[in-house]
Amino acid sequence: MSLLDRWTRGEHTADGTTHPTYRQGQGPGVVVVHEIPGLTDKVLAFGQEVVDAGFTVVLPELFGEAGRPMSPAYAARSLGRVCVSREFTTLATGETTPVAGWLRSLARELHAELGGPGVGALGMCFTGGFALAMMVDPVVAAPVLAQPSVPFPVGRRRSADLNLSPADLATVRQRAAGGCQVLGLRYRQDVAVGRRFETLTRELGDAFLRVEFEGRQHSTLTEHRQQEGVDRVLAFFEEKLRA
């Protein structure tokens, strides 16, 4: 049995857009958004850990081929596709990624079914900041940003940008001031993250919980996995999502 075989395939449609989803588990809901190139075996393995910790996990498939292993060629092809897709922004500053609306709808559907304080949202790498965009909806009670890397850090302005419109950033600030904390993970010398952690600290203050590891690696929860990071994520979900 492959890792993917444990998950139940479905789909979610919002605003005329449909993406496949994979679901497993029981308990409070968590949406885990995959990194480039897609739902690889290591992303699936991380999702399984969240399931095993007692959560209902939904993995949306936004690009790539579910279950296909990571490779440089596969990553390059996926990157090329997202760069031309209208669902994503890669270089624009002061804009919220268009797919955020679809992800918020998915979170609302999950929360309507499961109830409780809210749902968790985790993005990684290319999708790292998507959890922050999802936080605009009050059903998202536990946003996690793992090495957020968009917009691509070309220049100081882009490297500090949070991939949010001014209105969405204002809502995120308001929610943080009201007690909604945001967990962030990165390697300190990861150039892809740019200066975003400094921006998050400035904008959210003590509501931004920084978890940082020494080194220049990138994928804190998958390819360059840090067990401490995984443990912190699971503890965060446990604290925020149990009624």
UniProtKB/TrEMBL annotation:
<dbReference type="InterPro" id="IPR029058">
    <property type="entry name" value="AB_hydrolase_fold"/>
</dbReference>
<feature type="compositionally biased region" description="Polar residues">
    <location>
        <begin position="15"/>
        <end position="24"/>
    </location>
</feature>
<feature type="region of interest" description="Disordered">
    <location>
        <begin position="1"/>
        <end position="26"/>
    </location>
</feature>
<protein>
    <submittedName>
        <fullName>Dienelactone hydrolase family protein</fullName>
    </submittedName>
</protein>
<dbReference type="GO" id="GO:0016787">
    <property type="term" value="F:hydrolase activity"/>
</dbReference>
<feature type="domain" description="Dienelactone hydrolase">
    <location>
        <begin position="24"/>
        <end position="146"/>
    </location>
</feature>
<dbReference type="InterPro" id="IPR002925">
    <property type="entry name" value="Dienelactn_hydro"/>
</dbReference>
<keyword id="KW-0378">Hydrolase</keyword>
<feature type="compositionally biased region" description="Basic and acidic residues">
    <location>
        <begin position="1"/>
        <end position="14"/>
    </location>
</feature>
<dbReference type="Pfam" id="PF01738">
    <property type="entry name" value="DLH"/>
</dbReference>
